[in-house]
Amino acid sequence: MKIIRHILIAFILVNWTTTCFAFQGNSDSKTQPNIIIILADDMGYSDIGCYGGEMETPNIDRLAEEGIRFTNFYNAARCCPTRASLLTGLYPHEAGMGGMVHSGNTQPGPYQGYLNNECVTIAEVLKEAGYYTAASGKWHVGEERPNWPIDRGFDNFHGLISGAANYFDITKTKNKNVNRIFAKDSTAYIPGQDSFYMTDFITENALAYLETALQKEQPFFLYLAYTAPHWPLHAPPEDIKRFRGKFRKGWDVLRKKRLARMKKMGIVDEDLEMSERDEMIDAWEDLSDAEKDKMDLLMSIYAAQIYRMDIGIGRVMDKLDKMGENENTLVLFLSDNGGCAEGGKNGQDFWGNFWDGDAVPGTGDSYHSYGRSWANLSNTPYRMFKHWVHEGGIITPLVAKWPKVIENKGAIKNQVGTIRDLMATCCDIAGANYPEKYKGVSIKLASGQSLVPVFRGQTREVESPLFWEHEGNKAVRIGDWKLVSKDGEAWELYNLQNDPTELKNEIGENYDKQNQMINAYNDWAASVGVK
């Protein structure tokens, strides 16, 4: 077994060092493509229309029609770890974000709570390659200077330094001990409350940065990180009204209908078996009429948040067309984790700590989540949620559009990928060199693989194991096999080729495979400092 372990580790290291970046070298600003990464917050795998959901997302759906959709793409299970991994191409622990963000002085290490200086961001790498770099929206990987976007390679930033915030007034938080930081470049401030709505504000800033990019003779990188549809559930009344009643059939019926659409689209196989309703969730028919109405309202607000984000994405795409940059711009859309179960099974008691428990849901004086019940619909057909590393917590939609390169428009790709691949992809298409040192500090080797071969219609082999750990929840995927465990519980083993929804636990039936994977996980965990 020791020999197997050593062979496996050597295999991992060789592949990490030889498959990170397909092309590196001199950049040419006349031909370098622009890059826009759009990140949704707490949105489930199948919520958007082009993945089978009930949401109205015509602009994201248009990206899918003009590009490609990935069906086996992974994030890091939660806001902060995913953002750290996306921005750096590293596992979250390697970048200092194995857990959540921290304020104040913390002990340096895998859980320090802000990006460390042994990593570089996509913005830092692309800036060296001649790009104008801008970010609008949610940061959440460093609360204090010098850990803001402006300190990590972005020429401009406007948005939320912190995590979840009130969409209408960021001073209204879920309890008195929470403070939310908003900033423009290097200056913190409180945005005005008149007509302020977070999602629209993030879109407006993105449009302003595209206008700035138009005045420059440089390619641009725009990181557009929406807070939608993360709780609190806040949306304009007219948007909520648009969806009212659409979810009255309830999660049990809607999960089945959604799965049928996913099968018809080719998002999942025809013979896929959907996971059962989560054991903590009530049958829809067991709810009273008043409860059904309240739950329909909560999901209508959630849908309205996604709808408003989609409108913003449409405005950004229209701006791109007017700039004449549509053909040579790679646009990526994905989510930072699966649907969120926080706030109770029906989302009506957000940790018992509403800003105003009697406020009407959707208004700025409320602080609701949609709860575990609707999150189970959001993650159809998979098990579990944000925070856990079963498929429902870590699998994300990924839509890629790049007219100059992607020819098989509307195609669905089932090749496995991970957010760590985005650094490699950006370096590849920009002709940027990933540094061995940055500002005099040795930089950890990013472990992703470029997605460009997939864009070009080729098959890309994922040769190294994939690992996850967040607050004790842990997993490793090698080929079609996945070993996964909830915090403090026993390992489970699944063959995702035959059982993508993790229903048939094969632990104890394949000792060689499970031991190989347990050893691989333990070696990786030790190497990145999992505690």
Q: How would you describe this protein?
A:
With 531 residues, the chain is of the alpha/beta class. The protein is built from 13 helices and 16 strands. It has helices at residues 2-18, 58-66, 79-88, 122-128, 198-214, 237-243, 250-265, 289-323, 371-378, 391-394, 421-430, 452-455, 511-528, and strands at residues 34-40, 68-74, 132-138, 156-160, 182-184, 187-189, 220-225, 329-335, 395-401, 411-418, 437-438, 441-442, 466-470, 473-478, 481-485, 492-495. The strands form three sheets. It has a ten-stranded mixed β-sheet, with helices on both faces. The chain has a four-stranded antiparallel β-sheet with strand order 13-14-15-16, with helices on one face. Helix 1 (2-18) packs across helix 13, helix 5 runs parallel beside helix 8 and helix 6 crosses helix 8 (289-323). The longest helix has 35 residues, at 289-323. The radius of gyration is 22 Å and the shape is globular. The protein starts with a helix and ends with a helix.
Give a short overview.
This protein is an alpha/beta fold and about 525 residues long. The protein has helices spanning about 1-20, 60-65, 80-90, 120-130, 200-215, 235-245, 250-265, 290-325, 370-380, 390-395, 420-430, 450-455, 510-530, and strands at about 35-40, 70-75, 130-140, 155-160, 180-185, 185-190, 220-225, 330-335, 395-400, 410-420, 435-440, 440, 465-470, 475-480, 480-485, 490-495.
